[in-house]
Amino acid sequence: MKEKLAAAIRAAAEQGIADGVFPEAELAAVELEVPPKKEMGDFATNFAMKSAKAFHKSPRQIAEELIARIARDGIDRAEIAGPGFINFYLTKDVIYDGLRKAIEAGEAYGNLPNKNLPKVQVEYVSANPTGPLHVGHGRGAAVGSALVNLLRAAGYDVEAEYYINDAGNQIDHLAESVNARYLQLCGQDVEVPEDGYRGQDIVETARRIREKDGDKYLSMPEAERLAIFKERALSEKLAALKEDLAAFNVQYDVWFSERTLHPDKVNAAVEKLRANGNIYEKDGALWLRSTDYGDDKDRVVIRAGGEPTYLAADIAYHKDKFERGFGRVINLWGADHHGYICRVKAAIKAMGGDPEKLTVMLLQMVSLLRGGEAVKMSKRTGESVTLAELIEEVGTDAARYFFVMRSPDSQLDFDIDLAKSQSSENPVYYVQYAHARIASVFRQAAETGLKESDAFALLTDESEFDLIKKIEEYPREVEKAAADLAPQRIARAAHEMASAFHSFYSRCRIMGVEPELAGARLALAGKTAQVIRHALHILGVSAPEKM
RNA sequence: GCACCCGUAGCUCAGCUGGAUAGAGCAUCGGUCUUCUAAACCGAGGGUCGCGCGUUCGAAUCGCGCCGGGCGCACCA
User: Fold this and answer.
1) What is the ipTM of this complex?
2) Which of A308, A315, A433, A493 could pair covalently with A347 via S-S, beta carbons 3.0-4.6 A apart?
């Protein structure tokens, strides 16, 4: 209907030109929006205001001429409002017809047609496998997986990827830390190294190694022992990571190991940059001339000792991503990495790639609140609350909803007490409750033999119209949210859907009214439940049948 | 000093590719359960959109400059 209306407005403008009331001019794009208040109709356009310059007339005059020429098909009335908006009021038939089509689409309603674009890659979390995931990673996991679900619903072909930093210094530190704990367990007086990891999970790993194999590694040369511990620790940490993510309803298509970049792909990337004249040697190291591509300083890619930097691996990684044919690559990073964007884009440009194909989404920091107070990080280990502990305490549904409902650009105060509370304060329950209420109605309808009907013309209450319109808006909301990479909009849409339903539910009885009306209301409720389910699925939150 | 994010109701935040009287939830106050889940609904109050200047017919939204908070500025990741 929206497209039809836009076409009708264009046609009216062209007719106006043909009639000589408007001068020959390029037509502005027709934008239609749902007005801020429902008294303002079903759709509104600012087209008359946009055209004021081109048509040399006041917006209200233009609007008047347009209204006189617009096809009335499906439009009950059109009015000029405010500075020159045209408000359109659709006929009831059009609104009922929209509901009918939504119902016919079934569970797929909310999924948009395939965009037939090259694949999009979303890389998120990618935390180092050196310890458990924390709440900050939780935000990345929730937003990233919701974004993947959202883009898929909007018709994009998406691949979700986790980059495993299983090479380099931090993994050596992991091995050294496990080694120190192992030696401690064997009765030796050693300290965890300065750069080591002090978490309890490292002690556990060491303990498991000793339980299985005893003291046998003591007699081994240290380098050999470290190599063994490195692999043991890595596989344990990675398994734990995957477990945490799975428990959080997060799935990946590809687990990409950094090791597979070393040394060939890293060397190839450096060679390519060298061939382009973007590498020079200074102080024994190889430098990328990134300042030529917008960075504020040049960056070392190969250290004086011959070891590649993290950036070198990352350059090779992004080169590999684009070679895999993605039309667009989206990285979710913590906001503390924002300074890194510029150099990665510079490197892509230096290799002759298109940095516009890379979008880095930054997620601002998360702080936990309990009893109104910030939860402090542990001084000893430098660690905050783990994601597993958070899930344990508030549940996956509440945690995911809270992480996704805010804009990623805003810092998030995660109120643990609120997430746990089973009351109206808690937006997760509010949405889920609407779904459970509908499921309950359907259970009773089944008992009494009430069936859904399509006598939609009997739906005349204001709250019924509001609900139908929300349902009809939903696919556009999916489109917008995907275009803006903004899964938080889906949380909002779900909440608004629930609100419209609760309002309807308290005004209109379903059971016990005359059967045709009851059936139509049941169908409306059923469709509402489907849309809520669809939105909650994108958010990775369950849609319970009972609460 | 440079880069990025934020500053909107008492609190937490939407709205930001410019548009109508700036919205929601919570909190506060007042109503609503003999009938489908009251984890709900209805109503009320509550705002110099951080400050200033500019662009525009029109600015919370765009530009510039300040102020405040956060986060970074490695041959760490």
Assistant:
1) 0.94
2) A315
